[in-house]
Specification:
two-stranded antiparallel ribbon, alpha/beta, 11 strands
């Protein structure tokens, strides 16, 4: 069966080829550290606006902060002009990023209206200029994250992967769905295979990976690595689970009680990182991933959204774990 193996991206060596995807509002420093503990070989930060960094936006600047505990880490940037992309890449490098990633796949309208994200797939000359600018600005590896297509009418993955290689990118990540699909529908494995065959740099497949079977399909298509996004929210140990299953070991998985324990740890880290109010608010955004599929889940979620202090959250989770242990 397909095995999880080490991966090298430019000068950066990864312990394995399973990667945490960048997700806005989710893949901050506390969650990245948790996913590295859960077996990820590389973690990617939520994308940061090059334009906002250029104008000294405090919130965007904070998003570049990297803990010594979270290496190797890739910092994703997005933008529409060479000057700010170059500056953002340098800032990411200065902040301690091991890799800089350029986003050219985000389908969010706000990002696209600013000339960034997946609209860059329509203007390959501009995308090449931005990627080249980033590559020339830093000493660390630069990668590109994009999609296999804009619509179902034309596959672009192989061409964009070759563009990335020609511009000096150390790797390319391809979301195996069209931009119009956003995060829905099955991944296009054939399009990934075409891209893998077209280039010598590593191609990392992304899109809909939630288990070892799908990860294996990506690797068998020729992908050098697999990127996991929503499958890791609520189970940051999915990376270890996939590694174990591919090695013929039985994955440990997470019991409801263990999941609550890990979620509470993440909430506590968010409170330390952001302060109590913001830390709790940010944590609650992913509650549906963590608190589901077990007795009392709906009640616990409804109670959680009304709590405004960490002590009350701890009490709620402990009471729930006790009830679950008595089932």
């Amino acid at each position: 069966m397909t095995q999880i193996r080490p991966l090298r991206i430019g000068s950066v060596s990864l312990a394995n080829n399973l990667v945490l995807a960048p997700m806005a509002g989710i893949t901050d420093s506390p969650f990245r550290i948790l996913c590295l503990q859960g077996g990820a070989g590389l973690v990617c930060a939520e994308m940061v606006s090059a334009h906002a960094l250029h104008f000294g936006n405090e919130k965007s600047g904070r998003m570049l902060q990297i803990s010594p505990k979270e290496h190797p880490v890739s910092m994703q940037i997005f933008g529409s002009d060479e000057q700010t992309i170059s500056q953002a890449a340098r800032q990411a490098q200065a902040a301690g990023a091991d890799i800089v990633d350029l986003n050219a796949g985000c389908p969010v309208k706000k990002i696209n209206k600013a000339g960034a994200g997946c609209v860059l797939m329509k203007d390959e000359a501009k995308l090449a200029r931005l990627l080249t600018a980033a590559v020339k600005s830093v000493a660390i590896p630069v990668t590109l994250k994009t999609r296999v297509a804009l619509t179902h009418a034309e596959r672009l993955g192989a061409r964009l992967a070759k563009l990335a290689e020609d511009c000096g990118a150390a790797a390319v990540t391809l979301h195996a769905r069209a931009a119009v699909d956003v995060h829905n529908g099955p991944p296009n494995i054939d399009a990934l295979a075409e891209a893998c065959a077209a280039v010598k740099i590593p191609v990392i497949g992304n899109g809909g990976v939630k288990d070892a079977a799908m990860a294996a399909a990506f690797l068998q298509a020729g992908c050098a690595g697999v990127m996991i996004g929503r499958g890791a929210v609520g189970n940051p140990f999915i990376f270890q689970d996939i590694t174990d299953e591919m090695a013929g070991r039985v994955p440990q998985g997470l019991t409801p009680g263990k999941r609550l324990e890990i979620y509470l740890k993440l909430i506590e880290e968010n409170v330390v990182y952001y302060g109590e109010r913001i830390g709790l608010n940010r944590s609650r955004k992913t509650a549906g991933y963590w608190i589901s599929g077990f007795d009392y889940a709906s009640s616990v979620r409804s109670q959680l959204v009304r709590l405004d202090n960490l002590a009350a959250v701890r009490t709620l989770f402990e009471q729930t774990r006790q009830m679950l242990s008595q089932k």
